[in-house]
Amino acid sequence: MPFSLRPVILPMQAPAMIRPVLLLSLWSAPAKVDAQQTAQSRQPRTQSSARAATISGVVVDELGQPVPGARVAIVGFRSAVANEAGRYRIGAAPAGLQRVRASFIGYVPSEQTITVPDDGSLELNLHLEKRALLLDQVVVTGVFDERTAITAAVAISKVQPTTAVVASVPSSTALLKQVPGVFVNSALGEVRNIVYSRGISASSADANVGYYYVAMQEDGLPLTTVNFSNFGPDYFYRADATVQSLEAVRGGSANITSANAPGGIFNYISRSGGDGFGGVVRTRAGVQGDGNLFHRYDASIGGRLAEHWTYSVGGFWRYDEGARNPGGFPLNKGGQIKANATRALGGGYVRLYGKYLNDRNGWFEFIPAANWEDPTFAPGWNNNGSVIPAGYSAHIRSLVTGELRGYDPSKLIHSHDHAGGVELSHGIPGGWTLNNNAKYSQKGQDWQSGSGIFPSTIDHPLIYTNLGSTGNNGTYTFTDARTGALIGTTTRTAGVATVTSADPANPLGRVFGDGGYRQLTHATEFMDRLSLAKSIGSMKFTVGGFFATAELRRLNWAPGYMITTYRSQPAPVSIAFTPTDSTTVYQLTDANGLARYSNGETNSNVSQRQLSAFFGHSWEVNNRASTATRSRCTTTGC
């Protein structure tokens, strides 16, 4: 049956579901945020040598409804995840007294001690209660001073995800789905996400600038002050076991307490060490899509470093072939390591911190669809398909600079970030409190991918335009560059191509057009936020400023144009041309299917400066009423 292909977006199934999942807690203890708080040590649990049993049951809420996805664990041993009916099963449970803990996002964890029989089975039903709003917790985002959420007078949420949840989300921004009023589109994968809040959705249709009116922060400072054309915060942040909490401010004071953020501020706060040694290690492994491998390792430890000193260090590493396997290379591979050391001072603290990120990420391209009125997958396609071009190594000379450059689409987006900073909070004479947070970073991308991958046919005029063959009439032969199989031939007369022969399984000569793309970006940034605060009676005054400078270099380069086969994990297409008035055969593509080498590039050098001054005043009128006044002035230039 004939069908038409159009650029439509399908309501895709979530591709990030991993099955089966192995989530192993090797050792766990709390790691506190404040240097003056204490984290209790926890020793690995010694299991009984008695025979094992099976524990199973249902996890329900206070209304008796099942809680699918709830995690049930024998503390210190193993865990299971409840299915859609709320049922769980833990096999090989050690006999004797054991603590069983149930938890899930948005619910208060419950724990009880049971006696596990020597063998056989035990039925244990568990109950979870929905968590009340954490209004008594201290927040630091969207306000000029530390205060409880209930007195912040802004729409603020504080999310404290478990390490297991952080390790399972498809991207860092997916954690924001737990925040009311925030839209997150993470369908493309770990990077190139789209986030907006309270309907402020400028540029939300294009993932190249997905954070147009929101600020993404790490420990109180922006991940980057540069946000433009495929360069933004989600390339340089990964949520892992080092995440202590996420604070989110929707609208309100967001544009005052941070620059260009009328939609909101999302601040990822890292763990810091306590006096007691503790940590957490998580592994997660399984298959996804049509059997593609996934495994990830998260760790975070912290404790006492010396007298008055504490530390925290952690990170992750992950290998992910993707729900839609591109074939021959992983869609995501890499990780990061973060560390901080805190010195407690009389009336404050000083903290040194650093991060090294080295990660490669791809994203899901569009899949061919049919039926404009009710979109469905085109014949031969499903949710596991991938149109990302195959990997190969090519070396092409720039027509502008003459240098020889490499191009390999399997390298995808290689992001790196080297960052270090210092944070100080301390009282000074006169009843003032000084807070200063400064960070220096060098970050960048090496982006090698396809561009504008779109289904077409071998007689489409754009193919010949992109090949640089607009005025060349004659016969064009398209074959699979890997197997030599014929895709089809066309005869081009007076600028119009006609299919004269084709593979019977592909009579229209369907192919993908792909404009190769490489982008190299490097940014050097420094930013500093300084504030002074003083309380006078029931009033508090804050004055301060923010300074940021960025030097950015970018190369946009089109290494060539290629045609690929119309199938999942496409192969390059070889194109040969015979002119009408000659028998000479001209090869238009190389062995990798690449044509029209180095057909355009731009070099950019950008300097950016931001300077802001802000003022805040809050007044606790009584225990039922408070007022807040804030102002900010920002200037941006080169």
Secondary structure blueprint with pairings:
Elements: E1 19-28, E2 53-60, E3 71-74, E4 79-81, E5 87-93, E6 96-103, E7 107-108, E8 110-116, E9 121-123, E10 126-127, E11 129-130, E12 138-139, E13 147-148, E14 156-159, H1 163-168, E15 182-185, E16 194-197, E17 214-218, E18 221-222, E19 243-250, H2 254-257, E20 264-270, E21 278-288, E22 292-306, E23 309-320, E24 332-345, E25 348-361, E26 369-370, E27 376-377, E28 394-397, E29 404-407, E30 412-428, E31 432-449, E32 454-457, H3 461-466, E33 474-480, E34 486-493, E35 496-502, E36 510-515, E37 517-536, E38 539-557, E39 561-565, E40 573-579, E41 586-587, E42 594-595, E43 601-620, E44 626-637
List keywords for this structure.
mainly beta; Immunoglobulin-like; Ferric Hydroxamate Uptake Protein, Chain A, domain 1; five-stranded mixed β-sheet; 3 helices; disordered N terminus
Describe the structure.
This protein is 3% helix and 51% strand. It is mainly beta and 638 residues long. It has a twelve-stranded antiparallel sheet with strand order 1-21-22-23-24-25-30-31-37-38-43-44. Among the domains are: 56-128, Sandwich (Immunoglobulin-like); 138-270, TonB-dependent receptor, plug domain (Ferric Hydroxamate Uptake Protein, Chain A, domain 1), CATH 2.170.130. It contains three helices and 44 strands.
